[in-house]
Amino acid sequence: MRRKNLNGLYSTLAVAFFLLIAAGSARVNKLHCGAMSQSSTGETHKNGMYLILKDGTEIEGDRITWKAGLLSKEQIKIDDQKFAIKETRGYYSNGTYYGRVGRGGYAERIVHGPRLNVYFTQEWVTSTSTSRSGMMRTSQRLVCIHYVQRGEEGELEAIANQKDILKYVGDCKIAAEMIDKKDKEIRRSIRKNSMYLNNIFIVYNNDCRE
Amino acid sequence: MGFNRLTDFSLNVVLPLLFGCAIYFFGRNGGLAPVLKNHAADGLWAYAFISALLIIWHRSLPLYWLLIACFVAVLFECLQYKGFVEGVGDWTDAAVYLVFILLGYLLNNTFKRLYLTAKQNKLI
Fold it and tell me: What is the ipTM of this complex?
């Protein structure tokens, strides 16, 4: 019995230890919803609804809907035609392009260029807390995730901080200098110009020229 | 040198964690396939986690501790997804955790046999 208790204690300590490792290696998402301007740049496609398949085929239609989730098929529908989300690259909806993220969703493109594209998703997250008196309080906050894509066919990869951005633009001196600054300086630059982070990618796409 | 707890711990806990760290740090600078960069480190963490629990219990882990391990791994990802814990939550990560926890559990008998063989060799 004593051995069982000791094993239980060691197991609990092991759980705590491994959770610490997990928390320590977790990527903190420093790119909040206001970090990048959500007005898109570089889009040249005409208005209307177009679904783009993986092989580049464009399917025009009047209405696009899609659904994905734990218990539903990950599917996108353009008029009466259905496709698995993983078989698509993205879709245009009235001049805005949405690129596929993983197997089950789409993100809005905000920077479009020959080398890198930048996207974002946003969703309201509800959290409930209970006060000492037993009152339940619900609060909502907007959570944004930004993605970068290499070229038109690359996978969308989430970015969460300066290091992630530098990984993509590091070979362009001007862009690298724009992001390789202290947190405080970058926040100040964003406050002065909401397009500051977007411009890093625009410079990169413009053959590393301002 | 026979198979003992130290060997087991080094092979199934320390080594996977070290590999995971290496993938995590080198992957940040590019040069690794996305699937390795994004999920292998998580899988190795989960494998090391379940292995640590199995070794503590001399490779006879009560079922409820296996369930606790699975629950903790998925809960962590849920908390990240909901924003209660720092990080970017991803359901694929949760699936990877479960697969590698299961892998660790399935390999349990193999390592248990290694203990018995080492024990028998010691007695002979």
Answer: 0.86
